[in-house]
Design brief:
single chain, elongated, 211 residues, 14-stranded mixed beta sheet, alpha+beta, 18% helix
């Protein structure tokens, strides 16, 4: 056989072997490859979440419900130090895209840190698109730490809430949150908290603002 034909046959065999190996590896890892392509093509922006809080408390009396300063009525000598709330899941309701879960594990934070100010809560990479609201699942147990010890309060209302977005300087106008690729958006969650000492419960009203 001509040496040139032999060499050509060897090269063809090598090419076929390499092609077979490459095909086998690709088939075995096709899911990983598709996921990497999807991740590469996915457009994301960053969302920074802040929170603030406002507190009051209620008791029953002969004159009805009274809103008092933040001192428990049983003993006026001790004060509130911390109010621990746990969010078990938080996400965005999509308008031009799917809903997006920011995190789905328990995240505990001190609401009392947000009194008269705004505090950083969470940062996340969010799929690009328009979102109409934020949703939260809250743990029903709320811990209030005072100088006399810790009290566990109960959230008697539904622990799942959906809150549309408003502008911070115009809370009457409902707007969409626009997540843009490689840009940072910011929202503020405001917790209005009423502690009802007589029943050891707490009422929370939540608002969300684009800032």
């Amino acid at each position: 056989m001509d040496r040139r034909n032999i060499l050509s046959g060897v090269l063809i065999c090598l090419i076929l072997v390499n092609f077979t190996l490459a095909t086998t590896i690709t088939i075995r890892n096709i899911d990983i490859i598709i996921q990497e392509i999807d991740n590469f093509n996915e457009k994301e922006g960053t969302l920074n979440i802040f929170f603030s809080s406002n507190f009051s408390q209620q008791i029953n009396s002969e004159t009805g419900n009274l809103k008092l300063s933040l001192l428990p009525i049983i003993n006026q000598s001790y004060t509130i130090l911390e109010v621990w709330l746990t969010i078990t899941e938080i996400g965005l309701v999509g308008r031009s895209t799917d809903n997006f879960t920011i995190f789905g594990i328990s995240h505990q934070f001190d609401l009392y840190e947000g009194v008269n100010t705004s505090k950083f809560l969470q940062s996340a990479d969010i799929a690009e698109g328009f979102y109409s609201a934020v949703f939260l699942y809250l743990d029903e147990q709320i811990q209030v730490k005072t100088t006399e010890g810790t009290i566990n309060l109960i959230l008697p209302e539904n622990n799942f809430v959906v809150i549309p977005f408003n502008f911070l300087d115009n809370d009457s106008q409902v707007v969409d949150l626009d997540i843009i690729q490689n840009q940072t958006a910011q929202i503020l969650l405001r917790f209005d908290v009423i502690i009802v000492w007589i029943t050891n419960t707490v009422i929370i009203t939540l608002n969300s603002f684009i800032i």
